[in-house]
Amino acid sequence: MSGTVDIIDDSAVCRLIIALALRRAGFQVRCHSDSLAAIQAIARAEEPPALLLIDLMLPKLDGYELTLLIRKQPRLSTIPIVLMSARHGLRERLRARLVGASAFLAKPFDVGHLVALVRRLTTASAPPGGSAAPPMPSPAPLVSPLLHAPFTVGSQTLPTPVPMPDGGHRPYS
Question: Cα angle vertex 149, ends 52, 89, to 5°?
Fold first, then answer.
């Protein structure tokens, strides 16, 4: 078994397709159609999920707001989060990165690519010799570390900020 993945999407069809693919790949899956109910269920769960798949366009809290809320909770802050959307322009991808998403998946997607992405992210977050999520550290600053990491969109790597002597950053290298 490869861990539990929570799917948060208001589309029953998307939840079904994703859940079937991940179950066939050996993952346990929990599905949620409502963002508020999902965050409550995830927070109450005995073990946090190994990964969250969150649709951007949700009623009540959208995927960005939900990701920010999750990142502020120490117990959940390091869970890999994949934001998914049919709207997948540069703006959506950058905003996903800024709120703390680990990856962005454009809809429609190839199921094999989805499973490979989930495997990669859950393996990267698993401690040596296990498939469970690592212990949750104290929350780190949300935005500044993200801005220092290279970010690739398609085949283009976006420039990273350059440190300035006064501690600030120039926007492009």
Answer: 60
Q: Are 128 and 140 in contact (CB under 8 A)?
A: no
At residue 170, what are phi and psi to the nearest 5 degrees?
A: -80, 140
User: Measured in Å, how far apart are the chain's first and last C-alpha atoms?
Assistant: 43
Q: Would you state the pLDDT for residue 124?
A: 79
Question: Which range, of 16-20, 72-76, 111-115, 122-126, averages the lowest pLDDT?
Answer: 122-126
Note the pLDDT tens digit of each residue in 50-106. Answer: 999 999 999 989 999 999 999 999 999 999 999 999 988 889 999 999 999 999 999
Which residues fall within 8 angstroms of residue 5, CB to CB, at 6 or more apart? 22, 27, 28, 29, 30, 49, 50, 51, 52, 53, 118, 122
Encoding tokens for residue 147?
Answer: 């801005």
H/E stretch holding 84: strand 81-85
**By C-alpha distance, which of 171, 64, 80, 173 is closest to 125?**
80
Tell me the C-alpha distance between 1 and 156, whole Å: 35
Domains and CATH numbers, the chain: 4-129 (3.40.50.2300), 143-173 (no CATH)
